[in-house]
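input
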Amino acid sequence: SMASHEFRTPLTTVLSSAVLLGKYTQSEDQDKRDRHIKKIKDSVSHLNDLLEDFLSLGKLSEGKIAAQSEPFEVNLLLEETVDELKAILKAHQVIKIESADNIVFNSDKKLLKNILINLLSNAIKFSGETSLIQVRGISEENRLIISVIDQGIGIPADDLPNMFTSFYRARNAINIEGTGLGLHIVKRYADLLHGSVAIESEPGKGTTFTISLPSLQSEIIS
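output
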């Protein structure tokens, strides 16, 4: 029922906005038309996110995702991921990468990229229009440690223990669109990579997610 509710809300928005668009036929109604077109676009984008999350969750639950290790350049992965997310940055948001140039690491590049996309999308969504978002990558003692640091709304202390539970949303995030699945998926991917994910947060100040991964030498990790 939680799943059907998640899909029903944006679908209702699309339908009602489409109906209203048909009623605004005069040229002076352009502002109203634009507003409803934006609502439709936002809702379709949200539905797409939902679908991606449910498909990922389905594959995880069925054990269809296995980690495959390969050496890759960390900096290139970070740059590629940040580049893909530029389209969803708010007006004056900036993502800054701080990482040594020469880190080559063994892990599943695709799964790590999915983790980063989830964490950075959250940072963008829950941060203001002029916020700086930082991504830091370091290698120490055969581990890769990546932090995503934002200056967003933060997470209340009593919500922190539940943030990786599926469909859980922090109480200060209720009015911001989201599936409540992203962090659960992040945790499941980190587990597949034999890694860990930690949160530090302060309401009104921002949040730091830190991923710590071991180097994986074998080709396929079970």
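quick obs: The chain has two domains: 2-61, 69-221.
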